[in-house]
Design goal:
Elements lengths: L6 H5 L7 H15 L8 H17 L2 H16 L14 H13 L15 E7 L1 H6 L1 E12 L14 E2 L8 E6 L2 E6 L8 E2 L12 E12 L8 E4 L15 E7 L6 E3 L2 E8 L1 H6 L1 E6 L4 E6 L7 E5 L15 E7 L7 H13 L11 H17 L1
Parallel strand pairs: 1-9, 11-15
Antiparallel strand pairs: 2-7, 3-6, 4-5, 8-9, 10-11, 12-13, 14-15
Length: 377
């Protein structure tokens, strides 16, 4: 398999390392490269998957034996080009069965209790909720152990021996001069079948129910952050652990603030006089108010910053900044005095402006005055 790194190299252990050392190395690397600690880091995401894959093989004695002998190709069905892929099952299963046949002494292999399935759901939060952190109630549908049969799936609690495998949970298949063992499909490797299914769960041992949970959303979360709730997934088989619940955060857009990493961007209108003379004005923040210093001579679309008024960091670093885009507004309604002062200013600046507009009554007065002049003439 070109492109795949050696599993021992991935975990940083020698080929003679014990399972205990392999597991210890895996846990250390899994914590280091976990997506929750490396948000948006594609390289860490790739290494996390690589570490998990290496651990899955090297922590399993059977898979490790195949890997040590045949490398990646053995696990993928190649076995150095020997062509065992036509057996109808994965080559890894075939090798496991062969190894068991040679070294296991013909011992029975029954399927143990299966862990509960993991659940993933998307949780929407507002930008303000993401900034301050919040506890939210969520309702999730998940499979729970049937109360009536306690997960057995039978009405009476009794199961009958599987006729196909004789209660062994596995069957033998012949492939030429090889004899391969695999789990019995009739009983899924359990060795028994149900003759009187429980009416509540229809023999499944589990029923779907809605579970209400309180989820703690930490301050500073962003879209794509994943929260793990251990043991809040679906119920497993009797005696097995529950699955986990993974919550993927999705932060909605805010009408007044735009997010840029840990920084926030907003627009604040200022007057011509504030821009020209400078001012200290109160502006809204995501969670309150603060004062903004406008320097003398500020031009429109100038970006000003308020330190520490952005989003908090999940890693406990300092908060981001609030970036303020100052927009100089032109007044649309003027009082006579205001207009007079602006005209005076235009004169000082020696700038041409439109002539002063006459009011409706000034126009009427002028009209009637002209009529009177005509009568006199």
């Amino acid at each position: 398999m070109a492109g795949k790194r050696d599993y021992y190299e991935v975990l940083g252990v020698t080929r003679e390392a014990s399972t205990e050392i392999i597991v210890k190395a895996y846990r250390k690397l899994a914590r280091e490269y976990h997506p929750d600690r490396n948000i948006g880091n594609k390289d860490a995401e790739h290494k996390f998957k690589e570490v998990n894959e290496a651990h899955e093989v090297l922590s399993n004695d059977e898979k490790r034996a195949v890997y040590d002998r045949y490398g990646h190709s053995g696990l993928e069905g190649g076995m150095g080009g020997a062509g065992f892929g036509g057996f109808g099952g994965g080559a890894g299963d075939v090798f496991s069965d062969l190894i068991n046949g040679f070294f296991g002494g013909g011992q029975q292999r029954r399927r143990g209790p299966q862990e509960g399935r993991d659940i993933q759901m998307v949780l929407d939060v507002t930008l303000r909720e993401a900034a301050k952190g919040i506890k939210k109630d969520v309702v999730i549908p998940r499979l729970e152990t049937c109360v009536d049969c306690r997960g057995a799936g039978t009405k009476t609690g009794k199961k009958v021996q599987c006729r196909n495998c004789g209660g062994k949970g596995e069957v033998y298949l012949s492939h030429g001069f090889f004899q391969v063992r695999q789990a019995c499909r009739s009983c899924n490797g359990s060795g028994s079948t149900i003759s009187d299914p429980c009416p509540s769960c229809r023999g499944q041992g589990k029923v779907e129910e809605k579970r209400k949970l309180e989820v703690n959303i930490p301050a500073g979360v962003d879209t794509g952050v994943r929260l793990q709730l251990r043991g809040e997934g679906e119920a497993g088989d009797p005696g097995a652990v529950r699955g986990d619940l993974e919550i993927v955060i999705r932060v909605g857009e805010d009408p007044d603030f735009k997010r840029d990493g840990n920084h926030l961007i907003t627009v604040v209108p200022i007057t011509y006089s504030q821009a020209a003379l400078g001012a200290s004005i109160e502006i809204p923040t995501l969670l309150g108010k603060t004062m903004l210093e406008i320097p003398r001579g500020t031009q429109t679309h100038t970006e000003l910053r308020v330190s520490g008024e952005g989003m908090p960091s999940l890693r406990g670093n300092r908060k981001g900044d609030l970036r303020v885009l100052a927009i100089v507004e032109t007044p649309t309604k003027l009082t006579p005095r205001h207009e007079e002062l602006l005209r005076e200013l235009a004169g000082i600046e020696q700038k041409h402006v439109s002539p002063e507009r006459k009011t409706f009554f000034d126009k009427l007065k002028g009209f009637f005055g002209n009529e009177e002049k005509k009568d006199e003439d």
